[in-house]
Amino acid sequence: MLIREAQVSDIDQMLAIEDYCYDNPWPREAFEEEVENSAQGIGFIAEEDGYMVGFATGLAVANEYHLHNIAVHPDHQGQGIGRHLLEKIDEYCHEKDLHKILLEVRRDNETARRLYLGMGYESVGHRKDYYGTGRDAYLFTKTLARE
Ligand SMILES: CC(C)(COP(=O)(O)OP(=O)(O)OC[C@H]1O[C@@H](n2cnc3c(N)ncnc32)[C@H](O)[C@@H]1OP(=O)(O)O)[C@@H](O)C(=O)NCCC(=O)NCCS
Asked: Among 66, 106, 115, 136, which residue has the most ligand 1 atoms within 8 Å of its CB, making it the best to mutate?
């Protein structure tokens, strides 16, 4: 598996994976904002045999990385790709001297919560109705050891 930085030309395939993974997928503009328009935006693509199988996007803000989206194509879930994307983000943060990673996850997204806990994230807060009425989020963070 190859993990590389996301480019504008990846957006179509990112949208396709997004559609498979979410009931309320991000619109194209949201991907354009992070991958194309924002100097702070940085995303990663997981590829297998030249095909995109997953992605993660977010913003590097001050000394933090805000992870906004991570998704793996349903046919490839459970194969360690999500974990590899998060490892790449850790590596990027070390390189760029970013000390903390933050993200929100839906309270009922057990799979994602387990992924984050297994990668050293901790739940530090609860955001009521974050994704709409009755759809709460947990705030997770990971503090990176300085080398
Ligand atoms: C969450 C997601 C990114 C995980 O990616 P993945 O490549 O399937 O995850 P991995 O194979 O790397 O698994 C890593 C860990 O996640 C957890 N996990 C993965 N699949 C799971 C499942 N079906 N049930 C429970 N936990 C699961 C496990 O803790 C696993 O660690 P383990 O293999 O040591 O048990 C993927 O399921 C996905 O795209 N889901 C839809 C979109 C989404 O919910 N994104 C997160 C938004 S916050």
From this structure: 115
CATH number of the domain residue 100 falls in: 3.40.630.30
**Residues forming beta bridges with residue 72, ordered by sequence position:** 54
Rounded to the nearest whole angstrom, what is the distance from the C-alpha of residue 111 to the centroid of ligand 1? 5
The DSSP code sequence of 125-137 is EEETTTTSTT--E
Atom of ligand 1 nearest to the CA of 85: 12
Owning domain of residue 85: 2-143
CA-to-CA distance for 44 and 7, rounded, in angstroms? 9
| pTM value surpassing 0.90 | yes
Each residue of 29-61: pLDDT tens digit?
Answer: 999 999 998 889 999 999 999 999 999 999 999
Mark the ranges of the chain whose per-residue pLDDT is less than 70: 147
Tally of structural domains, the chain: 1
Distance CA(114)–CA(128), nearest Å, equals 20
Q: How many CA atoms lie within 13 A of 92 on its CB side?
A: 25
Ligand 1 atom with the smallest distance to the CA of 81 is 7
